[in-house]
TrEMBL record:
SUPFAM superfamilies: Fe-S cluster assembly (FSCA) domain-like, P-loop containing nucleoside triphosphate hydrolases. GO terms for molecular function: 4 iron, 4 sulfur cluster binding; ATP binding; ATP hydrolysis activity; ATP-dependent FeS chaperone activity; metal ion binding. It comes from the Archaea. GO terms for biological process: iron-sulfur cluster assembly. InterPro entries: FSCA_dom_sf (IPR034904), MIP18-like (IPR002744), Mrp-like_CS (IPR000808), Mrp/NBP35_ATP-bd (IPR019591), NUBPL-like (IPR044304), P-loop_NTPase (IPR027417), YlxH/NBP35 (IPR033756). Residues 335-355 are annotated as: Disordered. HAMAP family: Mrp_NBP35 (MF_02040). Keywords: ATP-binding, Hydrolase, Iron, Iron-sulfur, Metal-binding, Nucleotide-binding. Residues 3-64 form the MIP18 family-like domain. This is Iron-sulfur cluster carrier protein.
């Protein structure tokens, strides 16, 4: 058995999303046999995503069936975009075209859901005009400063948190002008000790203003989640958000419909208060993945008010938020694997322009 034999065996491992085997897709970075152990480096970039965990499991299974012990590592090169947040593997931006659709709720639950899957997570509340993440996770600590004037973010539910709210105090009216926002956001990235993270979830302010632009220009974003409600007006606004990401070539991980059906606490049945299927139809129209429907459930708001994200709750609404988290993180993986596999095909010798 040599390294080529191991590679041939790995052709049995299908990528569940891209519809080919991982060798043909260029997702095997390297194979080395050392002391009877196959050290396999895979181009997987979404830690704890169910589909990438399944790929790794399948690799172990295929090699194990031939009696080959293996050590797996996962590594994707990030597109060269400077040194902002070099130890953060994936930045996920949560956006909405208009306010009040539940963007912060979605961001908090996504971050808590990723943390529950086992990932190292940061949650950055970039909504400078209405920061409400600290309340939603009941952050009882404030950030600490080191002697080197670095800020240490407090942690809650295993997530590192940063919010404007920590710096201004809850009751201060925040009136920021564009350049101030720019400076502040840049500082919050540079001066906070985020450490190594698998995911940083950013709660953007609603709309398409200065903060969003600053972020898209300074931070390498793995992908954006766009939150809408079923109403047509909300869907129209979501289109504007989509255009903004398109202009900056930021991948969109998908569209999630929040406040879909009202889950009645008394009769447990669902009522479509704001209409039905708007988010899914919109996703189809713009050919973006649909990340799911999140019910309008009074317990979501209570969880937000009490600092207990619903994604950590066992019920059906918690299930909907967990399913959304898993789809989102699977799509982070797809974005990376697609980029890598396209890039590697393009890496074939380029035609000689002089001939
Ligand atoms: N699925 C849901 N079921 C019930 N209540 C919800 C749901 N999603 C959000 N809410 C509630 O709706 C209110 C607005 O949600 P949230 O603050 O997340 O919206 P937002 O889009 O971030 O708003 P903003 O414009 O202030 O940024 C909150 O009280 C929240 O608890």
């Amino acid at each position: 058995m040599n390294e080529d034999d191991v590679r041939s065996l790995l052709r049995e491992v299908e990528d569940p999303d891209l519809g080919d085997d991982i060798v043909s897709l260029g997702l095997v970075n390297n194979v080395e046999l050392r002391e009877e152990v196959a050290h396999v480096s895979l181009a997987l970039g979404a830690p704890y995503s169910p589909n990438e965990t399944a790929i790794a499991g399948r690799v172990r299974e295929v090699l194990g069936a031939e009696g080959i012990e293996c050590e797996l590592t996962a590594n994707v090169d990030r597109p060269a975009e400077g040194d902002v947040l070099p130890d953060v593997k994936n930045v996920i931006a949560v956006a909405s075209g208009k306010g009040g659709v539940g963007k912060s709720t979605v961001a908090v639950n996504l971050a808590a859901g990723l943390s529950q899957l086992g990932a190292r997570v940061g949650l950055f509340d970039a909504d400078v005009y209405g920061p409400n993440v600290p309340r939603m996770v009941d952050a009882d600590e404030r950030p600490q400063a080191t002697a080197e004037e670095q800020i240490i973010p407090p942690e809650k539910y295993g997530m590192k948190l940063m919010s404007m709210d920590f710096l201004t105090g809850e009751d201060d009216p925040v009136i920021w002008r564009g350049p101030m926002v720019h400076k502040l956001i840049t500082q919050l990235f540079e001066d906070v000790e985020w450490g190594s993270l698998d995911y940083m979830v950013i709660d953007l302010p609603p709309g398409t203003g200065d903060t969003q632009l600053t972020l898209l220009q300074t931070v390498p974003i793995a992908g954006a989640v766009i939150v809408t409600t079923p109403q047509e007006v909300a869907v129209d606004d979501a289109k504007k958000g989509l255009e903004m990401f398109g202009k900056h070539e930021t991948p969109v991980l998908g569209i999630v419909e929040n406040m879909s059906g009202f889950r009645c606490p008394d009769c447990s049945s669902e009522h479509a208060l704001f209409g039905e299927g708007g988010g899914e139809a919109f996703a189809e129209e713009v050919e973006m993945p649909f990340l799911g429907e999140l019910p309008l459930d009074p317990r979501v708001r209570e969880g937000g008010d009490d600092g207990a994200p619903i994604v950590l709750d066992d019920g059906e609404t918690g299930d909907a938020f967990r399913a959304f988290t898993e789809r989102t993180v699977n799509n982070v993986g797809i974005v990376h694997r697609q980029r890598l596999s396209n890039g590697r095909e393009r890496d074939e010798p380029a035609p000689d322009p002089s001939s």
